[in-house]
Design a protein that fits this description.
It is a single chain. By secondary structure, the chain is α+β, with helices and mostly antiparallel strands. The protein folds into 4 domains: 53 residues, no CATH class; 202 residues, Periplasmic binding protein-like II (D-Maltodextrin-Binding Protein, domain 2, 3-Layer(aba) Sandwich); 203 residues, 3-Layer(aba) Sandwich (D-Maltodextrin-Binding Protein, domain 2), CATH 3.40.190; 67 residues. The chain is 45% helix and 10% strand. It contains 25 helices and 16 strands. The strands form 5 sheets. A 6-stranded mixed β-sheet has the order 2-3-1-4-13-5. Strands 10-6-11 form a 3-stranded antiparallel β-sheet. The longest helix has 25 residues.
Length: 601
């Protein structure tokens, strides 16, 4: 019954893709492409409407009746197999209460440490809701083995995903394209405006109060950053709890093919994107294998080794997990983090601000952080439903709600009316509680919601809309609180006022926007499938690179560092590193083609 609506939206997305492949390469063309996308979508909708008004949409009233039929009378527990989760067990706290109130469900979060994916695949049941860390090999294997639910089967998407159909047509089209022609889900960070960029997350958050005390020394490059961190440790040798301070604190939970912090620092400094065993520059459309001597990965590996040799790297970095790193930044144990969501987001509490302390962006002058274009097709972390779930309609309804403005705002900031609201002009605002818990997630919730904000935070750790996408329920705001007019009207503390005065900026993104950042546009690119033989080689090479990279970080001397790196190159080559690089170089060509299409080249 809703098939014509789906087809209309997919036709619109296809028309856009065809048009962008034929355009020019300048900025004006990008804007024209966005206008063309909107016109094409409108035209496709008009065609669908003329074929039958009754088939165009489910009314809000009809949808509420459908929901009432599928919400269970007795509480149901849904298994969420989640490759992005840093948490295991029942979703508790305020978000758990929201799920009970709206859907009468409990969520059992199942993370994906080594071996869990294989075990669940062998069992024939991935779970009810399945969230992927990538839309590559494992996701495609699950499709091939019939482990995921076809969203068009029995009109599942048409009946229970109306908001997704109405607003995420391009993301549905991309998923069908990479999934062999069938829709199994949507990617993360979906955007509304293809011509815009996301906020840059590589903000080089630094302890600004200590930087101010040092007299705002020039930080031109990575070597200067090391020097400044040394000076900071001299004037601040202990953290809030009397523990020894360091320049940085790391963890290994998120290591993939390479050590996460090393490759991310290359993204933050050189502007290149993680890409298999290496990094990819979207500006020059060039691939840099990670073991290339004097290449970006090994340069940043040496940066962290230098910090270790100078006593500026938390020695627990390799063994502590995510939670240990979080505690370090909350307590001021470490002074620098290249990520905004691991630096300032952890440290900048109201208590620290009252003490004149804060972390703010302070990038090296030569840094060229990567900026990601907003992507109407969505990113590479799909939301899907397990093929064997007993509750496909309920799972679909939950994902659909998470894709609504209310759902996206709730997962980010807490319950509407309790933590945030829209004022009389439609502008998005925090409540007093909402602002408190956003700036200090250890603060207690209220209004019937128990525990701290962190206790109940959204444990699925994925997104639907990108944080910088426009929120249609607001009057021109995005989902990003840092850009709300209500939040940015004036500095919230003396230390923030100082940062604003010195930098001439009101927001972190405004400051990083001053750098010579490098843009990676949003595209329909998805990683290619490796053969079984190559996958075996790939896994061995990955383990070799991660193990030896950590060993190199902890090298006591430069000579030991060079020896470990040389051994890593030899060992990885013996495992078949060159085969992996050849595969990835071909992927780089495909990605470049997709980028050119997206940019109208």
């Amino acid at each position: 019954m809703k098939a014509k609506r789906i087809v209309a939206l997919l036709m619109a997305a296809t028309m856009v893709a065809s048009l962008t492949a034929c355009g020019g390469s300048d900025t004006a063309t990008t804007a024209e492409t966005a206008d063309t996308a909107e016109d094409a979508a409108d035209e496709a909708e008009d065609e669908a409407d003329t074929e039958g008004e009754a088939e165009a949409e489910v009314s809000d009233e009809d949808y509420e009746e459908l929901l009432a039929e599928i919400i269970p009378e007795e509480t149901v527990t849904l298994d969420v197999f989640d490759q992005l989760a840093n948490y295991s067990g029942e979703q508790i706290g305020w978000f758990g209460q929201v799920m009970l109130e709206k859907f009468n469900v409990k969520l059992n979060i199942i993370p994906d440490p080594d071996g869990v994916y294989e075990t669940r695949m062998e069992s024939g049941d991935l779970g009810d809701i399945v969230i992927w860390g990538s839309d590559g090999d494992e996701y495609l294997q699950a499709i091939e083995k019939g482990m995921l639910y076809d969203w068009n089967e029995d009109d599942l998407l048409a009946e229970y995903g109306p908001y997704i159909i109405e607003n995420m047509g391009a993301a549905l089209e991309k998923n069908a394209e990479i999934s062999g022609g069938t829709t199994y889900g949507i990617g993360h960070d979906v955007a509304v405006d293809a011509s815009a960029r996301q906020d840059i997350m590589y903000t080089w958050d630094l302890r600004w109060d200590l930087y101010k005390e040092l007299g705002y020394p020039e930080i031109k490059n990575l070597d200067d950053m090391v020097t400044v961190l040394e000076q900071m440790k001299e004037i601040c040798p202990t953290d809030d709890n009397g523990k020894t301070t360091y320049g940085v604190s790391l963890f290994n939970d998120w290591d993939g093919d390479m050590v996460m912090f090393v490759k991310s620092t290359a993204s933050a400094y050189y502007g290149y994107d993680e890409f298999g065993f290496g990094l990819y520059d979207s500006v020059e459309q060039k691939y840099y294998p990670c073991l290339e001597k004097d290449g970006p990965y090994l340069e940043c590996l040496k940066f962290y080794n230098t910090l270790y040799q100078k006593g500026l790297l938390d020695p627990d970095s390799q063994t502590q997990k995510y939670d240990g790193m979080v505690e370090d930044y909350q307590n001021g144990t470490a002074f620098l983090n290249v990520f905004n969501f691991l630096g300032s987001a952890m440290y900048n509490s109201e208590a620290h601000a009252a003490e004149g302390k804060a972390m703010y962006p302070c990038p090296p002058a030569e840094a060229q952080p990567i900026a990601y274009g907003q992507n109407i097709y969505g990113g590479n972390r799909p939301w899907t439903i397990g093929a064997n779930t007993e509750y496909p309609e309920l799972c679909m309804a939950i994902i659909n709600w998470l894709a609504t403005p209310e759902g996206r705002m709730t997962m980010e900031y807490g319950p509407e009316g309790v933590c945030w609201y829209y004022d009389e002009n439609g502008k998005t605002c925090f409540t007093d509680l909402g602002k408190t818990v956003k700036l200090d997630n250890t603060a207690e919730m209220a209004d019937g919601y128990t525990g701290t904000f962190e206790d109940g935070s959204f444990k699925m750790n994925n997104t639907t809309w990108g944080i910088d996408a426009e929120n249609p329920d607001s009057n021109g705001d995005s989902y990003n609180y840092k850009k709300w007019e209500s939040y940015n009207s004036e500095a919230g503390s003396e230390i923030e006022a100082d940062w604003r005065e010195v930098t001439g900026c009101n927001t972190a993104d405004e400051r990083i926007g001053q750098t010579n950042y490098r843009l990676a546009p949003g595209t329909t690119y998805a990683a290619g499938v490796k053969s079984d033989e190559l996958q075996v080689v790939w896994n061995q090479v990955a383990e070799c690179i991660k193990t030896n990279s950590w060993a190199a970080i902890y090298a006591e001397t430069d000579e030991e560092f060079e020896q470990i790196v040389d051994n890593m190159i030899t060992e990885a080559t013996d495992y078949g590193y060159d085969q992996c690089v050849e595969f990835q170089e071909n992927e780089a060509k495909i990605r470049a083609e997709k980028e050119n299409e997206a940019m109208g080249k």
